[in-house]
Amino acid sequence: MNINFKWKPVAAMLIVTGLLAGCGAAKQEGSSPSAVAGKPAEINVYSAMEEEQIETYLTSFKSEYPNVKVNIVRDSTGIMTAKLIAEKDNPQADVIWGLAATSLLIMDDQKMLEPYAPKGVERVLPEFKDKANPPKWVGIDIWETAIIVNKAEMEKRKLTIPRTYEELAKPEYKGLIAMPHPASSGTGYLTVNALNQLYGKEKAWQYMDKLHENMMVYTHSGSKPAKMAASGEAAIGISYGYSGIVEKKKGAPVEVIFPKEGSGWDMEANALVKKREIKPEAKLFLDWAISDEPMKEYNKNYAILSIKQEGGKPPEGYNQDPVSQLAKLDLYQAARDRDAILAEWEKKYGSKAEPK
Amino acid sequence: MKPGYLSLRGIAKHFGKQTALQDIHLDIKKHEFICLLGPSGCGKTTLLRILAGLEKADRGKLEISGKDITAVPAGKRNFGMMFQSYALFPNLSVGENIAYGLRNRLSKSQIADRVEELLGLVELGEQRHKVPAQLSGGQQQRVALARALAFSPDCLLLDEPLSALDAKVRVKLRREICRLHRQFGMTTIMVTHDQEEALTMADRIVVMNKSRIIQVGTPNEVYENPRTPFVADFIGAVNFIGMDKNKHGGAALAIRPENVQLVREDHEKGKQGVVRELEYRGAHYRLVAELLGMKDAPLQQFVVIDVPAESMISLKIRMNQKIFFAFPPEHVIQFDSTADLAAAQ
Amino acid sequence: MNMNIWLKRIRPNAGSWSQNIVMLTMTAALLIAILLPLGELVMKAVTDQEGGFVGLAHFANYFSTPALVASLWNSIKVSTMTTFIAVTLGFGFAYALERSGIQGKWFFRSVALLPLFAPSMLHGLALIYLFGNQGLISTGFFGLLPELRIPLYGPVGIVFSEVLFTFPQAYLMLAVALKSADYRLYEAAESLGASKWRTFWTVTVPGTKFTLISTVFVCFVLTFTDFGAPKVVGGQYNVLATDLYKQVIGQQNMQMGAAVGVLLLIPAVVSFVVDRISQRKQSGWLSAKSTPYRIEGNRRRDALFYALCSAVSAIILGIFLVAVYGSLVKVWPYSLSISFSRYEGLFEGAGPFANSLIISLGTAIIGTLATFMLAYLIEKSRACPVVRHTSYFLSMLPLALPGLVLGLIYVFFFNNPNQPLNGLYGTVWIVILCNIVHFYSVSFLTMTSSLKKLDSEFEAASESMNVPWYQALLRVTVPLSLPTILEIFIYFFINSMVTVSAVIFLYAPDLKPASVAIVNLEDSGDIAPAAAMSTIIILTNLLVRTVIMGLSGKLRKRTEGLLLRKEG
Asked: Do A351 and C70 touch (CB under 8 A)?
């Protein structure tokens, strides 16, 4: 039985060995890394981006490097962060692609990231990448808090559409709101962080106490509240812009509201995982991840990109000036506060017994 | 003792804390037909399986023609074994069952010839394509026998081969086994708990009880001169009639029912009794008499007496009638010790 | 006797050493696959992250965190409720089918077993479609009828879907107990003038008492350790199983996860022991002379049970149909037109559905082979008794291992760079191995009881004819066991298709199974695609079962014929 079981890892090791040999040969010839792709290779990519996004993004990588097998491990931001930290001593991931920058900052603190300057990194706007050179992480886009409101449900209940954080806490929305859990969802944390930095610690908790009263459910994923709002399961979902816009496009009776006080936001960023054997394909992947093709795809979902798009228009459903919508936030501070905020949050709201 | 063709020396076997065999010594001559006889749980099947190589003895040595085969695995001993359940393979036809052990030894055509020969031998030529479930019990038994004989074993081992059959078929197959034994002369060892089977079939009987061999001898020896009360009681019926006070330590005495003699009232060694039970057995009657003491007081001691049918009529014996009988000294069996008397009960 | 010399050319026997090697290898595999990972769990539960011994600190920590203690109580409450309802319904249903004269038993039986073919999340999904805020029943079929709202998310939803999940198990176990009654006891009771009611309490209940106890424990443990239902309809109502998931996946806190895992293990171990004891006791109630139960005519009883069976069947069928309907509706509840868009791409080469097929086939093939070999060697070989007893014990052990705990201990054991088998981690093989162990004990018991029915002398007969054991195995034992082997194959396949608890911790990045995909889809709010995926799994399972049972039907009859009439 064991003989049967062993062949795959052994085969994989043989392939990797072969690749390293091939790599050496390639260097001697001085040819481009794509020559490496002559033999099949595998890289593990950890990502917190949406499942359907990943698929479309990857098509250009697959057509360019058909011989590199990309294994995507996807989960929500909180889980990917915890997973990466847990695997610190035996990293399974080769590349982190599209994970919240606040999480990457924590990992950088724990010396888990390998500095690498992907090809074209000079085009990335300075505020979107690590200040070190070579940078340990490079951003690709920004996503932000949005309130997804089901108009049909609002009409049925004769309620007005909330347009600010302040309005969300009004008692008439009691039991109607779904929001992502900040410990597991990046969207959840960036929203809580925004409240924290906008209002200041004390006022933020007071506000969230009131918001908690209106909560129907804290979801695991950041996009779920948008989907719940779309199906009317919840009347209002606190989510992020893209997910609400997708539902609207599909025909759900929702409106996507960016709160007046300014949206919470975080950056989706990439990094190379520090480990004993760094595969050349991992670097190849990071080079590709900020190249033109995927950037164009990111832009279909996100308004704010780390590389200025020539004549690029913000995607449908976004304000003309998406940057002005963002709250003034300090990501480094957000990373430092994360543990304390999550612990306090869990203590206050974690055991909300029964949703009503 | 001169070692025989098949010789067992000090075989012992335990299953966990249970003793199955202890200190078994036995010599078997070539071509002999041996019956291992004993009550269930006496270790006879274990002994057969040790002979077959299906169990390993804890101690002792097993030799065939002077060659030590104690450690030789079952398959290489060239012993044919027939199981109590027959162990016919239900999914294989009669022919395939018989050919089963030949596949690794012979060519295809040789197998076909051999199967043909064996089917003729057990008169099952017609049934070769049937599966065991389609055969009667007697037919199944003969297939099993043919299978055990297929590769001409040096020794044939039979584990209660007839126990699953009804009485009529049993007698018929008993004769068939004896015929095959006479015809081929392979050394045969058969396990049975049926004394009649052992008496009619065996050249020698090995009586076993409580994981030991109690007596080895021809059927006649074992019947006429049982060495212990157990053997006397197990083979045939017997009356235990007290102790011989002349012998040192006191030896038990016994007599078989057919040897008890009915006598006249004034016979010098006559004893008196009352008929308490009467059983008609065809050629004879078996009666149970209660001994009477002084002044005809019942002693609550009983003697079993077999009386030929014609004597019953001539003597006009009825229930509760007083009778007189004697134990002819030439028929009284003496045992060396009383130790086994308890063991028999 | 004409002793042909050529007959004596005996080929050297492969001997039993080859058998001993196989036996030892497989026992070693059991040790590695079951016992060592379990040891790792206990180790983790009493050490800190750096491996230092901390005793019961994690448990102390657990019991001093009010939220976590609350989940423990929630788990107990929900499991008790579920057990009570499922066992009551299961008993009623089994009684109706085994002891009453109602019509359509075949139909009711099929419906009752339907939930076994579905992933446990399906019930939750269907309940959302029925009782969610936009559910069919909550909104009174979108306004046609008065609204009927229940607080679905929370204990109500969990209990509802756990009852659906455990009901078939309860029914199956109790049906066996009710079927195997000794009618002579009923005749005796009647002749002694006992009333029907008294007979029920003095004969029926005691006769099924031990099975009833076992059933109660099985249902309790299934609910206590299930993850699918609370995940989907639990809302903010935390239970132990979701806690474990949160600790391990959400916070990657393995030590705390281990402590929760040990807690989850407790009722399972108790259930295991109780089941062993009650099996021994129950066997005394039946003898070879027992006569089967005869059903007497009784209109009122039949009408009552018919109503019960119809109601239960309607609920089960309703749940399944609603799930299918939900997967087809375009935008629930705003655009009710039918569309097959959720099913597009499900069958594509590398999707979760294909992964599940690979995993399930792998599990079924390797699992069936391994189970058969182990059952055969333990039951039929004469290898060292100590080794066989060890193997037997190890083979029963997975009965006490809930899937969630099994998955967890595999993470602990295999995801360790110093572990020689670390290479398995992250491959499809570890998922297959985990599934095999998860469903091994039941298969093993089925296989063993089937092998017990074969003559124990077949092996000895072969041995005495110098035929190697593996030839006897292939020519006789395997053909005669084929119906059971196929049954086990189906069991492995279906369960691997629907299981989520064990594999959720283990699945390889490139091989996410469909059941996990359902959890992920539901997680991100994609209810309809999750329902579509569940529907596909059910259909596949039904198809596989029908095809294999169809093929093996004839085989089974033939084999039964062969094994019949042994005494002639």
From this structure: yes
